[in-house]
Specification:
mainly beta, Lipocalin, 3 domains, five-stranded mixed beta sheet, four-stranded antiparallel beta sheet, 2 helices, globular, disordered N terminus
């Protein structure tokens, strides 16, 4: 019986081999060329999509700021990088070679005892407009520097500490102060044009404010009470407000409603998310809700073409349909990792692990194409900036690294 089974298996195997050989012989040489060409093309696409960051230069510029609330970041214009730290050190660096163009120490302008000078406590910026460089501070100041040489042009006290970037449109510099106060300043001299309140203060909220978004003469701002507001650029008059809290304000201590991320305006739609996970698409003209979804978003989000990209609180990377809010795809490779806001680059998504690894994902499906460790240091990546194919990384301990992708 066993012998019969072995013989049967042998004949089945031979039949399979002969069938395979017969099918193989059916292919013409032209078919083989097509298959080979297809394979080579796919290989070229794969190699093209491979990310291989090459370190061009690095420089030590400042001591670590030690400020976990700071939103200081890199800024770029005309081949120059601008950077600041909490203590008041501001520098301009040549993108091509990393050489310092100028250096300004704002803390030297403050009261000094022996060799110790009080920190400027910079907390937001730099923001560039024409020949000006703007910074905000925890002391409730807006400081304007000449971006050609670093000289101070003007300094203005605003309502309270500035924890998000000022935004410039036309000649108006818009500042979202702590305590739900929005102010418009003349960007040339710091003169306060208008001041408005965005609503009552919350008893419990996270420290931080939403960076305003501007579309023509509309200023869109979120606040820690869960209200999104639209006002007029020139005078601050409120056009509409929408309360995005999930539960009544009287119970807000049980569920933080802060809107600390910057709203994004695209094709007449305002996209905004609050800490409680309330993700909304609103009509720019009247604030009416187009769609509403519950996604626990852990940081800023980006929009490109028809997709929204962001991390949820578990560090799942999600892609949403801008028209419906439904999920296109999700990627769980980054769970429990500390990452920076996604970067869109040539139909791909760049994800940077703060500990020194860079990932290259297909924006259409979230599949990881490649990844590489770029850690040349024992440090923590604080912010990133993409300029064409140049990736600039700023670390917590004051290092700047420039990679070519």
């Amino acid at each position: 019986m066993k012998l019969q089974k072995l013989i049967l298996i042998f004949f089945i195997f031979c039949s399979f081999i002969l069938t395979g050989c017969s099918n193989y012989s059916d292919y013409s040489s032209q078919d083989h060329k097509k298959i080979l060409k297809h394979y080579k093309n796919n290989l070229k696409i794969f190699k093209k999509n491979q990310i291989n960051p090459k370190l061009i230069w690095f420089i030590k510029i400042t001591k670590k700021s030690g400020n976990s609330f700071s939103k200081l970041h890199l800024a770029y214009k005309n081949g120059l990088i601008y950077i600041a730290n909490k203590n008041g050190i501001v520098k301009c660096i040549n993108l091509k070679n990393g050489k310092i163009i100028w250096n300004t120490n704002l803390s030297k302008k403050n009261f000094c005892i022996l060799s110790y000078c009080l920190s400027e406590e910079l907390s937001s910026g730099p923001v560039i407009s024409n020949d000006y460089l703007y910074l905000g501070s925890e002391k409730g100041k807006i400081i304007a520097l000449n971006n050609k040489n670093g000289n101070k042009i003007w300094e203005k006290d605003v309502f309270s500490e500035v924890l998000s970037d000022p935004v410039i449109s036309k000649n108006v510099l818009i500042v979202h102060n702590n305590n739900n106060i929005l102010q418009g300043l003349d960007k040339n001299n710091g003169h306060i044009l208008w001041t408005i309140s965005l609503g009552p203060l919350e008893l419990y909220s996270f420290r931080g404010t939403s960076k305003p978004a501007v579309f023509f003469d509309n200023v869109i701002t979120g606040s820690d009470n869960g209200i999104i507001s639209s006002c007029i650029l020139n005078n601050g008059h409120i056009i509409w407000q929408r309360d995005l809290t999930i539960i009544p304000n009287s119970f807000s201590s049980l569920n933080f409603n802060d809107i600390d991320t910057q709203p994004i305006i695209s094709n007449g739609v305002v996209y905004v998310v609050s800490y409680n996970g309330n993700f909304n698409a609103l009509d720019l003209s009247n604030g009416n809700i187009i769609w509403n979804k519950l996604y626990k978003v852990s940081g800023d989000f980006i929009i490109n073409n028809n997709s929204i990209y962001f991390f949820d609180i578990h560090k799942n990377l999600l892609s949403l349909n801008v028209n419906t809010g439904n999920i296109f795809w999700s990627q769980n490779k980054f769970i429990y990792k500390k990452t920076i806001t996604p970067i869109y680059y040539k139909n791909n998504i760049i994800i940077i692990d703060r500990k020194g690894k860079i990932y290259f994902l297909d924006a259409n499906n979230g599949n990881i194409i490649s990844h590489k460790s770029i850690k040349k240091f024992n440090d923590y990546i604080q912010s990133s900036l993409l300029v064409n194919n140049k990736l600039i990384l700023q670390t917590y301990n004051g290092m700047i690294y420039m990679f070519k992708l």
